[in-house]
Design a protein that fits this description.
Keywords: Lyase, Signal. This is Aminodeoxychorismate lyase. The protein is mainly alpha-helical. Helices cover 57% and strands 8% of the residues. The protein contains six helices and two strands. It has a two-stranded antiparallel ribbon with strand order 1-2.
C-alpha cells in the first residue's frame, strides 16, 4: 500500500507543478492568425483555363445561350415543315400456316397500308402469287410502294 500511495503522491505533485508553470509562465503565445490571400479574378481565370475549363462572364454566357437557342430554332423550322408530311406507319405482319392473301390483306387494311383487302387478294391471284405466301414475320411500312409490300410478303 505504501508503494501505491507514493506513486499517487508523485502524480499529484507533478500535476501541480505543471499547472503552476502553465498558468504563470509569461511566454508569448503563438498567434494563429493566417492571412488568406484571395487570388484576383484574372489569376483565377488563368488557373482555370490552364486546367481546361471555359471561363465566361455572365454576359458572355447569356449571349452564347441566346445564340444557341436562335441557331437551334432556325434548324428545327425546316424539320417542322417536313413533319407536316404524311407520317410513316411501320407494321409487322406475322403470317402463320394456313393464312390466305385475303387475311393478309385485312391486316394491311387495318394498318392503313392498302385500301381494300378484297382488291388486294384479287391482285395477288392475278399476279399468280397465291402459292408464294410463306409463314414468317414481315416488316412493311406506309412509305413502301404497293409492289414493294407485295414482294416483301409474297416471296
Amino acid at each position: 500500500m505504501n508503494l501505491l500511495s507514493s506513486f499517487a503522491a508523485g502524480m499529484l505533485l507533478t500535476t501541480a507543478i505543471c499547472s503552476a508553470v502553465y498558468f504563470t509562465a509569461d511566454t508569448p503565445k503563438a498567434s494563429s492568425k493566417t492571412v488568406k490571400v484571395e487570388p484576383s479574378g484574372a489569376e483565377m481565370k488563368s488557373k482555370l483555363e490552364k486546367k481546361g475549363f471555359v471561363v465566361q462572364t455572365k454576359e458572355e454566357y447569356d449571349k452564347t445561350v441566346a445564340d444557341a437557342v436562335a441557331t437551334s430554332s432556325e434548324q428545327t423550322e425546316p424539320a417542322e415543315k417536313e413533319s407536316t408530311s404524311k407520317p410513316v406507319t411501320k407494321v409487322i405482319i406475322n403470317v402463320s400456316e394456313g393464312m390466305t392473301s385475303i387475311t393478309v390483306g385485312r391486316m394491311l387494311v387495318q394498318a392503313g397500308i392498302v385500301e381494300d383487302a378484297f382488291a388486294f387478294s384479287k391482285d395477288i391471284e392475278k399476279k399468280g402469287l397465291m402459292n408464294k405466301l410463306r409463314p414468317g414475320v414481315f416488316t412493311v411500312d406506309s412509305s413502301m410502294s404497293y409492289d414493294q409490300v407485295v414482294s416483301t410478303i409474297f416471296r
